[in-house]
Amino acid sequence: MAHTLAGTPVREEDLIEVQVLVDAYYNEAPDVTDDNQKVSFGTSGHRGKSMDKTFTDLHVAAITQAICDGRSKFGATGPVFVGQDTHALSQPALLTVLEVLAGNGIVAAVDSEMGFVPTPSVSRAIIRYNETYDDKADGIIITPSHNPPDNGGIKYNPVNGGPADTMVTKWIETKANEYLRNYCEDVKRISVDNIEPDAQLPYDYKKLYVEELSSVINMEAIQLANPNVLVNALGGSGGAYWNAIRDYYNLNLTVINSEYDPTFSFMTYDHDGVVRMDCSSQYAMADVIKQIGEYDLAVGNDPDYDRYGVVTGDGLLQANHYMLAAASYLFTTRGWSQKGIGKTAVVTHLVDRWAEDKQIPVYEVPVGFKYFASLLFDGTIGIGGEESAGASFLKKDGTVWTTDKDGIIMALLAMEILAVTGKNPSQLYESFTETYGKPVFGRIDAACSKEAKQKLKKLQPEDITVETLDGDAIINIRTTSLYKDMPIDGLRVQTEQGWFVARPSGTEDLYKIYGESYKGEKGLVALLSAGEELVSSVIKE
């Protein structure tokens, strides 16, 4: 059940105090004997809070030094493209990153207008540069994604432009914690006031990204149809990009919340009463949903613009539904041949049904966009997407656009679909359910101990001895992805009428159960409950 504040405007007393957070960033030091305050550098990099001593100048300095030490091992010898979002802690973290890069004699490609740089723009810049030069570039992006305003984050993208894989992130984490152990005494850095001009490369991220959009989106079709679209910039790093897109292509866009406001005072509370800039949440997008009657379509993005939200007259479109609509439209209009669809183990099974009918290969991977990076880079898949509203796809000619999630092109694709087909993505999705069925998707969380989470992560199919789930025969049990049999760090159980995936949370003492049922809302509730009962019985201590 949603919190009583869900979908209502944020109260003044709940707004962050920016200066207090920034002061803590510089003045607080982590307890290096406390594992919770060490660097934890996963696929999404390191995230934390300055007030909790989990995201401080020392964390960012240690991580950046580790990247400097290891980037040549990861194939990078050129400049580092640096992006950052609009969280309050992203600005001081940017200075830390620039100081350490300069201290190591590494050129930082910084925005020529001193503006914010979204995740997809960094990915695009890395790919663009590496297509031309031999000294390969990589990237650092300062963002905690859609997390609350008091959070900070930093992640690393290697030379393929996408999220770093597990080997790279583990190396960075280990090395960074070595530096953190002695409070960064061995970190090389130069005060920002003493950085030489040639230590930085001014780079026009926005202009290049915006002008290249016509290579991946049918901008002419959107211009011709001229849909009336509301864009919720959500106070993120791509606000200026949307304004530039509107002006450069002369589109009928109304852009709101594009000004810098690190308190995110314009937000509405998320489902749990927390301020979270999640464009895939109906509660965080409540204001836009209320206004949809005045527009043909509405779209939004999270602070670093790697997620998307699409709103039609039916409300906020589920990412799982948009994934099918987007994939079907792209493969119908782009003329791609010998390419497949990338999806994670928790993306709707309708994608598989449609793709099988159209004889398009499906590459199912574990949860995490890093698994799509190489598949997009070499053109194996035309589109790769997650159930959590992250996706990217190839240029019209079938070559790579970005290898990280791109919320801007996913939003523009919704406009293209409407312009070309006369149907919005929700209507396009509904048309497919008439042929392939209409499943209901959902997720619940279940509390468990750290020990139980480890058991879940190590489960094997033979550990499941039951033969039915919610009265339906189990037809498949697995703990790996269909593509390359990679561990999904959990369990996937499938019946003729649905499936569930149980995975441990990376940050909390709980596990998540994703499920999809062809037996309606009640069937989904029963499926998720049966899934929780099954998993709990297997991992109980």
Which regions are unreliable across 5 or more consecutive residues at pLDDT < 50? none
Note the main sheet. Answer: 6 strands, mixed
What is the strand arrangement across the widest sheet?
1-5-4-2-3-6
Mean pLDDT: 96
Strand content: 15-25%
User: What is the CA–CA distance across the termini?
Assistant: 29 Å
Which structural class is indicated by helix and strand composition?
A: alpha/beta
Rg from alpha-carbon coordinates: 23 Å
Strand segment count = 21
The best one-word shape is globular
Distinct helical segment count: 16
Helix content: 25-40%
Keywords, please?
single chain; 541 residues; alpha/beta; six-stranded antiparallel beta sheet; globular
Topology:
Elements: H1 18-27, E1 46-49, H2 57-70, E2 80-84, H3 90-103, E3 108-111, H4 119-130, E4 138-142, E5 151-157, H5 166-181, E6 200-203, H6 205-212, H7 219-225, E7 229-232, H8 239-249, E8 253-256, H9 286-291, E9 297-301, E10 308-312, E11 315-316, H10 319-333, E12 340-344, H11 350-358, E13 362-365, H12 370-377, E14 381-385, E15 391-393, H13 407-421, H14 425-436, E16 440-447, H15 450-457, E17 468-469, E18 472-480, E19 487-495, E20 498-504, E21 510-517, H16 520-539
Parallel strand pairs: 2-3, 2-4, 3-6, 7-8, 7-9, 12-13, 12-14
Antiparallel strand pairs: 1-5, 4-5, 9-10, 10-11, 14-15, 16-21, 17-18, 18-19, 19-20, 20-21
